[in-house]
Amino acid sequence: MRLYSQPQVPFTDSYLSSLIVKTAGFLQARAYEKGSKPSDFHWHWFPVKMEEGTSHGLDCYPGCQVMTSISKLPTPLNLRNRDMIKVSLLDGREMHYILPTERASKLLDEFFQNQYMFSVINGKVVVYSKKKPVVVWVAGLWSDMSEWMDIPACDPEGEFTGANCLDPLNFEVPLDPDNVLPMYNEVLRLLQVPVSVKPDDINNASNTQ
Q1: 19-30 tens-digit pLDDT
Q2: How far apart are CA 141 and CA 165, in angstroms?
Q3: CB pairs under 8 A, 24+ apart, for 5-8?
Q4: Are the C-beta atoms of 84 and 161 separated by less than 8 Å?
Q5: Where are the alpha helices (DSSP H) in the chain?
Q6: Which residues of the chain have pLDDT under 70?
Q7: Domain edges within the chain
Q8: C-alpha to C-alpha distance for 17 and 169, rounded to whole angstroms
Q9: pTM (two decimals)
């Protein structure tokens, strides 16, 4: 693909990389939905900054004080009636996923009342716990992986780093072998670049008598 990012063609490396991420992610998502088994290597973890707020995110309406992600997250795939998303603390302790309507009953449960729990409300991760994590790890299989390119990354203390969670120039999209060639063909189609073989000028010259 780098051939088409040379100065004579108006495609930058960044643009081509982002297009590859989006296209590959789309093809792989469709493969999962058709029954391809996700590998543990296909899950990617991203740091997400949290802030104090209400569980529903509406300042004009009273609600429970919780920790909620500053950014809305990409939509995870739903496979076998389960959203493909995980949330954990930075030390790796995974949180329990609950429905927002289960929060009140879980807090009365002897086991869950001392556990970290999370829901997804209006596209944001909402964490219920006595402690207030300022950063969480979020992993998943996504309908559009490229949306992570627009979410700012943060360090373990919750300070934004100036970069985004996904850098298309340094990201290897999980892709089944059967989807590699379709991905390149689709990218070339979107760029309106004909699929052709570059002439081997050196070899042609050596065959000249």
Answers
A1: 999 999 899 888
A2: 15
A3: none
A4: no
A5: 13-33, 103-107, 177-191, 201-206
A6: 1-10, 55-63, 194-209
A7: 2-191
A8: 6
A9: 0.77
